[in-house]
Design goal:
heterodimer, A: alpha/beta, 6-stranded parallel sheet, 14% strand, globular, B: alpha/beta, 7-stranded parallel sheet
């Protein structure tokens, strides 16, 4: 087994390397893996191989691919299915392989799903992303209920508009509008995500289970406060979608 | 009947509505009683579907059965097209078709995953999208009611995939409400609790008389399950003029089952 780093051995499902690197600098032995995963042997083999290489897997972090936006009218069924497969089915297959491995060995562990705050906010053009994130949030909560008694914690980090990775539809003035609607007056960045994930992995969060932590600088919660946001970004997207379209 | 609750002259389509002991039947019958012509869909159960059509026709309404798998986008488009062609239009779409199994997440099989996500989530998107497109072409708005579940807000062990699809559909209903308001289409979702139907036959919470009593004890209102008609009443309200300013709403019809829960 050897020496365990403070945050443990972490397998990270991510299309990028950034989060894994940031977790390493915070005390995790993080290894990145990439899909595709399905309900076949590949996820099981990968988990077993990673466990051997790392000397045990203490945690799994699954990371949403970059956000795409599309109005539902414009979203073909094939694209919908593809988005769902990449955002929900692939992480689920890896999580399931990891769970089976951990349960068979009586090992404790943590799952942190990095998702999108659009899973908690019906956002125009965010239907496919939001539905996928919402689905993962329930899978996280149910995992917490089902496997909490066996020492497994599951939580999600629902990230808001992310610096440097805004969807193409927001490229022109989207960042400025998003900042305007965010009480923190900035976008999310890698340090925000890594810090929150590291905390959820840590002993300090050992009693946190089944939570969806919104990491969006207050963007979503302004909807339920009296200080109504301008909704400038959403209104701009709707206005653009309907420009030139007869009512 | 209060005039604003009348559905006279409207055409409705209810998916997953063939079974005798199902929520879909309760919805279809209440809509027909309020005056709507009602098409029903199911993926199978033709014999029972014929009985449903007959019940609706005996109420003096037009009806038809459209066999289609809601998880197949091509069949969904054909279904909506057939209803519009044979009944003249589509004013009310009720996304009711739903399936479930009971498995811990680690035990979920690929077949169960495909079936549950295919019908409950992908089917909801394909059907609502096709219905909205038909309503948009008609140019006079429309009503979409999605049957979600209390599990849209209540994580429940052994129902992880089902719950995931229901929370996703709840989110999606909000997005549809915002995007399709432009077309005069309202989109709301109704969350049944425990309804006395076939889908719950194999529920672990209802398997023994003792488990059944324990489950009933958690329902504040009369300690009883809902009748399918009680879900139909909520749907008929949301489909009527009485609900003209309601969109993006979640209406639980659960006897208070999830009051105070997550």
């Amino acid at each position: 087994m050897g020496h365990r780093p403070p945050l443990g051995n972490v397998l990270v499902l991510d299309e990028e390397d950034g989060l894994a690197q940031a977790l390493r600098s915070r005390g995790a032995a993080a290894q990145v893996t990439r899909g595709p995963f399905g309900f076949d042997q590949r996820a099981t083999d990968l988990v077993q191989e990673a466990r051997r290489q790392l000397g045990g897997i203490d945690a799994l972090v699954t990371v949403f691919p970059a956000i795409d936006l599309a109005f539902l009218d414009d979203l073909e069924p094939r694209a919908w299915l593809d988005w769902f497969r990449r955002r929900v089915e692939e992480p689920f297959c890896l999580v399931q392989a990891w769970l089976r491995d951990a349960l068979a060995r009586g090992a404790a562990g943590r799952w942190v799903a990095v998702t999108s705050n659009l899973g908690t906010l019906p956002f125009p053009s965010g239907g496919a992303v939001g539905a996928a994130a919402a689905a993962l949030h329930t899978l996280v909560r149910v995992a917490a209920v089902e496997y909490g008694p066996r020492g497994i914690r599951a939580n999600a980090v629902a990230v808001g508009w992310y610096e440097g990775a805004l969807p193409p539809a927001l490229e022109s003035d989207g960042a400025a509008l998003a900042v305007e609607d965010t009480p923190a007056r900035r976008l999310a960045n890698l340090d925000d995500v890594a810090g929150t994930v590291a905390w959820l992995l840590s002993l300090e969060a050992s009693f946190v289970n089944g939570e969806v932590v919104r990491l969006d600088g207050g963007y979503t919660i302004t909807r339920s406060s009296r200080a109504a946001p301008s909704q400038a970004l959403e209104l701009r997207l709707l206005e653009e979608r309907w420009r030139g379209v007869a009512r | 009947m209060i005039a604003s609750q009348s559905l006279a002259g409207k055409v409705a389509l209810v998916t997953g509505a063939a079974l005798e002991r199902g929520i879909g039947r309760g919805i279809a019958l209440v809509l027909a009683e309020r005056g709507a012509d009602v098409a029903i869909n199911d993926v199978s159960h033709e014999a029972q579907a014929a009985a449903r059509v007959q019940e609706i026709e005996e109420l003096g309404r037009r009806s038809l059965f459209v066999k289609a798998d809601v998880s197949d986008p091509g069949q969904v488009e054909a279904m909506v097209g057939e209803v519009a062609e044979r009944l003249g239009r589509l004013d009310i779409f009720v996304n009711n078709a739903g399936v479930q199994t009971w498995q811990e997440l680690a035990e979920v099989t690929e077949d169960a995953w495909r079936w549950i996500t295919g019908v409950n989530l992908h089917g909801a998107f394909f059907c609502c999208r096709a219905a909205a497109e038909q309503m948009r072409r008609q140019g006079s708005g429309g009503r979409i009611v999605v049957i979600s579940s209390v599990h849209a807000v209540m994580p429940f062990p052994s129902m992880g995939v089902y719950g995931a699809t229901k929370q996703a559909v709840a989110l999606l209903a909000g997005v549809m409400a915002r995007e399709w308001a432009r077309y005069g289409i309202t989109v709301n979702h109704v969350g049944p609790g425990w309804v006395d139907t076939d889908i719950n036959r194999d529920s672990p919470g209802l398997r023994t008389e003792e488990a059944r009593r324990a489950t009933l004890a958690t329902i504040p209102l009369e300690h009883r399950p809902a009748e399918p008609r009680e879900i139909g009443e909520a749907v008929a309200f949301l489909a009527s003029d009485a609900a003209s300013y309601i969109t993006g709403a979640y209406l639980r019809v659960d006897g208070g089952l999830v009051i105070g829960k997550y």
